[in-house]
Amino acid sequence: MNSNFKHFESWLSFQNFQSEIRQKARYIHSEKTRLFLETVLKTAKDRITQIPKGFIYWRAQSGCILPKTDDGFEFPFSKDRMKPRIDRANEGRINPKGIPCLYMALKRDTALAEVRPWVGAKISVSQCKIIKNLSVINCYSDTKLKISHGEPPPKERTEMVWAYIDRAFSEPVTPEDDIADYVPTQIIAELFKQNDFDGIAYGSSLGEGHNLALFDIDKADIANVQIYELKQISFEFKKAEGPY
Question: Does 204 fall in a domain?
Fold first, then answer.
């Protein structure tokens, strides 16, 4: 790789990368895409975060084990079931179909919100205990997304690109998504995985704190599992731009 390429070419570098991956060349990368990924990796060195052994995260999955009879009891999913099924890994922002990773949240309520339950839904929730010291890339950014008229200085440009990367990881997965929408973030995730990082931390659009995705699902143990039921949902709206 070109060791002199230290800054993003543009504050729109991530959007340009997304467009090329989705619409032009997905598997054989252009020189422009290779330079973008090189810069992601170089600037990621300032975002390495250590997570100590024993740290606790939360994981939620919709559903529970239903009783076999009307007078029976509901039980949360087993500890094994609270981890991704190796042979049934669905497409995600970080993992392609068939290659599981472990998605968790720093806050319990954020883990619950990430499964987007309906009122009355039962959710199996577990604590996940990190079993070894981890080195992850922290994509989280508090930089406000904005349109820049002209190219800002390199440092600001870098902060803006990482803010867009963080937002891309943070967007909830929905059944209506086109699978091609996941490919740009999957490529960035695989870049970190191939460079021996344990996972990715990124913001949540549905709750407080950050989320963590581990490439190796066995680097966290399921500590306990309980059932939660959603009692109510609170919506907050603001007027969007573009009235007519």
Answer: yes
